[in-house]
Design a protein that fits this description.
The protein is of the alpha+beta class. The protein is built from twelve helices and 16 strands.
């Protein structure tokens, strides 16, 4: 017999089905046993009248929460069953795998007359057993939402003449800045884990591919212990040619994100509201844009936020957070493009305007940076000079070569998928990814 998803089985009263999943709940009393079975699509009650099915009693007595079973039986309508008014009367129950007592509490359990309340395990304890933690409805929804996020953006780009590329993550020289890079043993020499596909995205521009994107791992050797930093995350990166300004890059990103949030809201808006208490808001176009110095003036004027002049060429974490309040009050928007960063704070490959200001931006969503983007410097001599100013030499010689034999003007951005997920669902980053990696976390 082929397996039926629980959600489908529930729609076919009278049918004989095979359903498989985890034992979500179990009540075994003298005459009756009730098993709640969960698969990725939902839950269904398996009802056993023990007198009628003596052969199943031994199997049922062995079951524990989270054991995996296969159940063959008939779907019956029963208005007294809370779970959708249907149940399965089994003919056979096969144990696929017995679960030991669970080592974590995935959710807080309130006290009853007989039992004390159980506190939810901390996120770090839960990550020790992440596969068990991921069985909750909320976590499975998180992964499903992330799938729609990435897939809708991928589809949008495919519909707009982009191609998908896969760039190496093992590289011969530290990219971008040299800081925050993981060194790995590579036969009898050292290699590094890519901090960004930046150089190869630009190589693709020099290759004449015109419009490319990549979804892949990004490694950062940062000893940050915040709720938004991880040492390995999924980057959604794109780059495209023949732009006239970084405004083109911002416009594309705003359209891409609007499309994505529309799809997420359509598919999962209600479930997100229910599970995470967060409304998915489809933004309006265009997204508001502000110059960094204007933003600091506004934050000072409106909220008395003052930073030292020396910090004003970059965005402080507090300014990022406060900017959310400001953009909501001033524009009724959740997104804010910030431009006008200082050249000393930006990568050497950002193109600069006649005043030496990088022609790039950060996109802040709900008070957290989700993207850095820019028009890139594609003119070999200028690029070489900007690299030298940052003290980058031989290491990036291979990269500079990309610009020597013809290269279109271009720009692009890098978007953190885990950060997006985290902000969308109002979680910390450890909860918003399949499996977190941090300075103290390399297992499971
Ligand atoms: O701002 P970043 O460092 O920019 C780049 O990698 C450039 N090469 C992009 C470009 O095309 N100019 O990283 C891009 C995004 C950030 O905005 C953030 O969303 C995410 O990647 N990110 C992180 N996410 C989780 N943990 C970290 N440690 C992250 N560092 C960056
Ligand atoms: Mg950045």
């Amino acid at each position: 017999m082929t397996r039926t998803y629980i959600a489908d089985a529930a729609k076919t009263p009278g049918a004989k089905v095979l359903v498989q999943g985890f034992v979500d709940n179990l009540r075994d009393s003298k005459y009756m046993a009730f098993i709640v079975l969960k698969d990725i699509t939902g839950r269904i009650q398996i009802t056993v009248e023990k007198e009628k099915l003596p052969g199943l009693c031994d199997t049922i007595s062995q079951l524990t929460p989270d054991s995996v079973i296969s159940v063959t039986g008939t779907v019956i309508e029963n208005e007294y069953v809370k779970m959708g008014g249907v149940e399965i009367i089994p003919e056979d129950i096969q144990i696929e795998s017995i679960a030991d007592a669970l080592p974590i509490a995935r959710k807080a359990i309130p006290a009853t007359r007989k039992k004390k309340a159980v506190e939810r395990s901390s996120i770090d304890q839960r990550i020790d057993y992440r596969w068990i933690d991921l069985r909750t409805d909320e976590n499975q929804l998180m992964i499903q939402v992330q799938t729609v996020m990435v897939n809708s953006m991928r589809q949008y780009l495919l519909d707009h003449h982009f191609v998908e590329i896969h760039t190496p993550k093992l590289i011969g020289a530290a990219s971008e800045s040299g800081a925050d890079v993981f060194e790995v043993k590579y036969f009898d020499r050292s290699a590094y884990l890519a901090q960004s596909p930046q150089f190869y995205k630009q190589m693709a521009m020099a290759s004449g591919l015109e419009r490319i994107f990549e979804v892949g791992p990004v490694f950062r050797a940062e000893k940050s212990y915040t709720n938004r930093h991880t040492t390995e995350f999924t980057g959604f990166d794109l780059e495209f040619s023949y732009i006239t300004s970084y405004q083109d890059v911002m416009d594309l990103e705003a359209e891409l994100l609007t499309h994505m949030l529309k799809e997420v809201k359509e598919k999962y808006g209600e479930q997100i509201q229910e599970a995470f208490g967060k409304e998915v808001i489809v933004p309006t176009l265009p997204f508001p844009t502000v110059d960094l110095h204007t933003l600091y003036d506004e934050l000072e004027k409106n909220y008395g936020y003052v930073v030292d002049e020396s910090e004003k060429n970059d965005m402080t974490t507090e300014a990022e957070q406060l900017s959310y309040k400001w953009v909501q009050e001033k524009y009724g928007h959740e997104f804010l493009f910030v431009t006008g960063f200082g050249p000393e704070k930006r990568a050497f490959y950002h193109m600069r305007d006649e005043n030496g200001i990088p022609m790039g931006y950060d996109l802040v969503w709900r008070g957290v940076e989700i993207t850095t983007g820019a028009q890139r410097e594609h003119r070999y001599e200028i690029l070489k000079k900007q690299a030298a100013e940052k003290g980058l030499g031989d290491d990036i010689k291979f990269y500079l070569e990309f610009f020597k034999y013809g290269c279109p003007p271009h720009g692009g951005f890098g978007l953190g998928v885990d950060r997006m997920t985290m902000l969308l669902l109002d979680l910390g980053i450890k909860d918003a990814m399949f499996l977190f990696r941090g300075p103290n976390r390399l297992t499971p």
